Amino acid sequence: MERSSGAVDALQRVEILSAEALRRTIRRLASQVLESVQDAGDLVLLGIPTRGVALADVLAAEIERVSGHPVDRGTLDPTFHRDDLERVGTRLVEPTQLPASVEDREVVLVDDVIFTGRTVRAALEALQTWGRARRVQLVAMVDRGHRELPIQPDFCGRLVPTSRLERIHLCLAAIDGEEGVYLIKEPAAD
Q: For residue range 66-121, what is the model confidence (pLDDT) as tens digits?
């Protein structure tokens, strides 16, 4: 990876979850989500861009495998509902794609990492513009701490305390050609 100066980064990548551990965690999260709803037919998984969308697809496939029923899934981009755009910057907005009405449905928001809680807060606000869900729950693969808002995942793959300078990266085969969860550390300053 290159910095704007052209110097090559010497980022350190530490494995948090191996490919097998990630698959076991996905199976566990899928089971927990299924156990939390009375009727899997009422379930809607909404991935939060960017990695939450791919994770929602993987979770939905596992839920379908276990339950034998298809699971509605889509994308919910909360970018325009964020209160911290000047701090986090912008990215290309992905279209919100809802597979069906969320009215009176069991909605599960899916994100790869929960950090400050501001993305989830924005997603909850965005979701309200589409209807009133019966219940909204949150799945996060990694909770890295540093919450600025009182928002917690209902289902969490792994709690990984981090510094604010570290990052978490979820790799999925469909996107990256490999699977696992990694802690990315900046090199120590000289």
A: 999 999 999 999 987 767 656 655 656 778 889 889 999 999 999 999 999 999 99
Domain boundaries, given as residue ranges, for the chain: 20-160
pLDDT tens profile 155-188? 999 999 999 899 999 999 999 999 999 999 987 6
Tokens of 19: 């490919």
Strand (E) or helix (H) holding 33: helix 19-36
Dump the DSSP string for 49-99: TTHHHHHHHHHHHHHHHHHSS--EEEE---GGG-S-HHHH---PPPPPB-S
Helix H or strand E segment including 175: helix 173-176
Residue of 73, 119, 65 lying closest to 96 (CA atoms) = 73
In the Cβ-directed half-sphere of 110, how many Cα atoms lie within 13 Å? 28
| Contact predicate 76/126, CB 8 Å | yes
The yes or no reply on domain 20-160 and CATH 3.40.50.2020 is yes
User: Global pTM?
Assistant: 0.89
pLDDT in tens, 114-143: 999 999 999 999 999 999 999 999 999 999
